[in-house]
Amino acid sequence: MKDLFYTLTLCLLVQLGTFGQSPMAFNYQGVARDNDGNVYANRAISLEISLHRNFEDGPVDFQEEH
Question: What pLDDT is recorded for position 25?
């Protein structure tokens, strides 16, 4: 009975550690607009996304271009 209790406790503790992990990816979507607020429809645009650490001018942790 003690072995079962220890095994279940260990499994529970291992599972709790996985809930705090960040996902490997995230989804995002947006709408490209011109200066007047009109939607860019059927146009090719380039987009660069940067994630900065702690503040706007902080070091870039992740960057990608599309």
Answer: 78
- Give the span between the Cα atoms of 42 and 45, in whole angstroms: 10
The rounded distance, in Å, linking the Cα atoms of 20 and 47 is 31
pLDDT 10s digits, 9-53: 888 887 776 666 667 777 888 899 999 999 988 989 998 999 898
Q: Give the three-class secondary structure for 13.
A: helix
For 12, how many CA atoms within 13 A lie in the half-sphere containing its CB?
Answer: 6
CA–CA separation, 14 and 4 (whole Å): 15
| E-strand stretches of 1-66 | 48-52, 60-65
Strands 60-65 and 48-52: antiparallel
Backbone φ, ψ for residue 65 (5° rounding): -120, 145
